[in-house]
Amino acid sequence: xxxxxxxxxxxxxxxxxxxxxxxxxxxxxxxxxxxxxxxxxxxxxxxxxxxxxxxxxxxxxxxxxxxxxxxxxxxxxxxxxxxxxxxxxxxxxxxxxxxxxxxxxxxxxxxxxxxxxxxxxxxxxxxxxxxxxxxxxxxxxxxxxxxxxxxxxxxxxxxxxxxxxx
Length: 166
Description:
The chain has about 170 residues and is an alpha+beta fold. The chain has helices at about 10-20, 25-50, 60-65, 85-90, 115-120, 140-165, and strands at about 5, 65-70, 75-80, 110, 130.
């Protein structure tokens, strides 16, 4: 995912070993609970933030924001993000406005293909404009920051409920 937010748990081997005594596969339970919490909290909030950012065109990006479970170097990671390249540009900015000075330093030209963007720029669809960049409009990082504690609590509560049913 070019742009994503994720959550990490430490001490998992110890917890898994202790709860295996109960016959519970903690890893699978945590993955289910984590994926559910990330969808309900972070994914939902990221889409809300994109809706609130009326200064940019976000329809396709908002539709692509999703949560997935991936295996990477022996670790299971739950990510909420987007596969769309311009998600990175919206999150971190472009050109001279890009965070940490990572953007292009020289202007470039691009063809305006969206009526909303054309209206905001005062040009016609199909016009070519000279551009120096866009300011960051983060949506994933704030969604994660605003919900980190909620995600942890949701996972904890889900795991406690599951343990109580064993």
